[in-house]
Amino acid sequence: MILQGTFLLGIGQYTVDWLLRDGDERVCARFWSVQTRMKRADSMLELVVPKDLIEPLEPTLLLGQFPVDQRRPGPPFHVKIIINFAPEDPKRATLDQHEVEILASILRAVLREPGITAFSVIAGSLRTQQILYVSRKTAAVDLTAIGDALARIKLGVVDAKALSTGTGESGFLKVFLNTEISDGDYDALIFVGPKYPLRLNIDPDAFAGRIRPIVYLHHESDPLLYPWHDAIGRIVKRLHGREYAINQPRDLLSAWVDVVSRICP
User: Fold this and answer.
1) SS3 of residue 14 by DSSP
2) Stated pTM of the model
3) Sequence-ordered list of residues with C-beta below 8 angstroms from that of 72, at least 6 positions apart, any chain
4) Phi and psi angles of residue 149, each rounded to the nearest 5 degrees, phi first
5) Which residues have C-beta within 8 Å of that of residue 206, sequence separation ≥ 6?
6) pLDDT tens digit string along 180-227?
7) CA 109, CA 195: separation in Å to the nearest integer?
8) Could you tell me whether strands 130-138 and 214-219 are parallel, antiparallel, or unpaired per DSSP bridges?
9) What is the pLDDT of residues 120-155, one digit of tens each?
10) Is 54 helix (H, G, I), strand (E, B) or coil?
11) What's CA 82's distance to the chain center, in Å?
12) Which backbone phi and psi does 223 adopt, to 5 degrees?
């Protein structure tokens, strides 16, 4: 049996008293100390957890509406976000909560930007070859709807209609990207997802004159798992976009500062 649980700790010194008792009244106890501190490299990060706070970490990153209510004055600026919910390791058929939280954190960082006045969010899964959620040109993104759609998918199951095409994930991605990139009703395009090894060739000349600034924010917990550009990364590179690897919270902060300087007016 494996018992899972995560606690959020603020900066401080803690003593852990751990007690396990089974149905036969057998007891196992352990005691240890934990100290949390912020690395100097992370000093730029805002402390979101008060000092000495202990609380269970609940999967709440995909809950509620996410409005942008502190916009900077300026012209309307519309960003399209395409997020791929898939396990980082293509051999796995499940997407664990940690991976969902990482992708949700990146999504929320984009939605939090006050310089962006409207969002189009397309959430999908290359693994199941389906679109999970779509919203177009809105200031308030329904994260709960994304979370609900994500909870319903089964990553080990692909619809028979998708199999009947015979093109697989590559064909699904090619048609999808041709549609979404060619639709020029946006000011910048942002891809979010794990690195996903997939062979795909798309002629960038097909989008001549219609390309807006394009960015790829991808998560890779182990850079050695797939050290090359994935399919989306190769497309972004050929379209003269920028790719950012997100491994730690500070990576997201520094990447987003650079993204905003490049795409926002």
Assistant:
1) strand
2) 0.74
3) 114, 115
4) -65, -40
5) 178, 182
6) 877 778 899 999 988 887 766 666 666 655 568 899 999 887 777 777
7) 19
8) unpaired
9) 999 988 877 888 889 998 888 888 888 888 877 765
10) strand
11) 10
12) -60, -20
Closest by CA position to 57, among listed 124, 102, 106: 102
Structure tokens at 147: 């979370």
Place of tokens 């798992």: 225
Tokens 């807006």 belong to residue: 212
The three-class DSSP label of residue 238 is helix
Q: What is 141-190 written as a DSSP string?
A: EEHHHHHHHHHH--TT---HHHHHTS-HHHHHHHHHHHHHHH----SEEE
Which is nearest to 85 in space by CA: 131, 46, 116, 48?
131
Complete domains list, the chain, with CATH: 7-56 (no CATH), 65-263 (3.40.50)
35 residue type, one letter: Q
